Amino acid sequence: MQSETALVLLSIAVAVSSLSLLVQAIASWRIYQSVRKLQEEVSPLIPRVKAAIEQAETTFRQAATELHETAEVARSLIEAVQEQVNGIDRARQEVAAQWRVQSERIDLVLEDILGRVQEVVGVLHGTVMRPVREVTGMVAGVKAALQTLLLARRPTVDRATHDDEMFI
Is the full-model pTM beyond 0.70? Predict the structure, then answer.
């Protein structure tokens, strides 16, 4: 009996196994049909995709070449601009140095001119103004002496001068 039960169980296991193999075979057949159908739909697209990929590669190569050329031009422009900026900076430094030197020279010249003007004013004061004052003083003295000698009278209050009014 045990052997019969074992045989029955073994038969059921074989049947289940066979049934699962059958289901797996049907599933594999359906997958095969789906793959064939997909292959038929995709096959006409393969040449177009290859052409698109080749065109994209060509475009990328051209873009890379143009980008490289543009980078070279940009690099050369940046170098030229840098040279110009350096030249302008050097010129600015030279102009600033010359400006400082010229400013110092102008300052020295102005100091010299002012010193000379002061000397001229001092000389003018000493040589022209002092004799003019002396002469004016002498003329005033002579005038006062002549008035005193010729008029010999004192002016009345009616005829008093402004200076005389201050003492009155």
Answer: no
